[in-house]
Design a protein that fits this description.
With 277 residues, the protein is mostly helical. It has one domain (18-271). It is built from 14 helices and no strands. α3 crosses α8 (143-159), α5 packs antiparallel against α11 (197-220) and α8 packs antiparallel against α9. The radius of gyration is 19 Å and the shape is globular.
Length: 277
């Protein structure tokens, strides 16, 4: 019996096409997004929203193309099974999925209790009646189309060559580079971060510990893509639902770093190369 974090994950039809995935995702994301950057089109227009959406689904669309073109039916079947699976071997894996909620609440508590932060940070910008549509929007425009690619395909592919720790670092860096054009599209929410060097450091820096935590959850749940989607969803949901101040975001970043350091004590998972790769 294979007790490695990934088990027998290799596909008989060949290795993961990591380079093709990365080139495809960057091209099919950056072309529409850079068009918006240089054209100066209003973000509110339907055309702009379509281009942002097309770029956003690139991780999924490229993954699906690679599955059809290069991998066997059994490989694709396993991929979609993992998209719907929630296999928690221990209670702690389920708890880590909720870490974005814990980090947000704790950072606000520290901000208010020790730094004189405002209670308004707890006031959501939407009403209760808008909560479900808002949650669906957050899920569909970010976590779902991204994680089918980042964790669902790329993480396994990187694990063929590097241990999960290095794979996490690579994904964190790629994840940040992938988002870059959004900081220059007029009217897009991330442009607010571009005006502050501190917030830029927090945004890009936080992708590394988040990637490490997601790698831990992913392998501990038998490579469940759904767990990555849920974690990413909670990160985005809490970030958009609450009104965190810049100082609170810095505190939240530190909490994510501490969380990633805590789980990296599992040296067998993070620092040993996956068996069979």
């Amino acid at each position: 019996m294979d007790n490695s974090p990934m088990g027998n994950y290799k596909d008989k039809s060949g290795s993961y096409k990591v380079k093709k995935f990365l080139y495809g995702v960057m091209i099919f994301t950056w072309v529409p997004w850079l068009f918006l950057v240089f054209s100066g089109r209003e973000i509110e227009s339907m055309f702009s929203q379509i281009l942002i959406g097309l770029g956003g689904i690139a991780p999924t669309s490229v993954t699906l193309y690679l599955l059809l073109e290069y991998h066997s039916k059994s490989f694709s079947r396993d991929f979609f099974n993992r998209l719907l699976s929630l296999n928690f071997a221990r209670f702690m894996e389920a708890v880590w999925i909720l870490f974005p909620v814990f980090a947000s609440v704790l950072s606000i508590a520290i901000s208010i209790g020790f730094l004189g932060g405002l209670w308004e940070q707890l006031n959501p910008g939407i009403t209760i009646s808008q909560l479900i549509p808002f949650a669906i929007f957050v899920l569909l425009f970010g976590p779902l189309p991204e994680e089918l690619g980042w964790r669902g395909y790329l993480l396994d592919g990187l694990a063929e060559k590097w241990n999960p720790f290095y794979a996490s670092l690579i994904i964190g860096v790629v994840w940040g580079i992938w988002h870059l054009p959004l900081f220059f599209i007029e009217g897009y929410p991330l442009t607010e971060y571009a005006a502050s060097s501190t917030l830029l450091i927090v945004y890009f820096g936080s992708l590394i510990p988040k990637s490490i935590i997601m790698t831990y959850i992913y392998f501990k749940t038998d490579r469940s893509i759904l767990t990555a989607v849920l974690f990413h969803f909670l990160v985005n949901f809490m970030g958009m639902y609450l009104n965190l101040s810049p100082s609170t975001e810095v505190i939240q970043f530190i909490i994510f770093v501490l969380g990633s350091l805590l789980i990296m004590r599992d040296k067998r998972l993070f620092f040993q190369k996956i068996q069979g790769s």
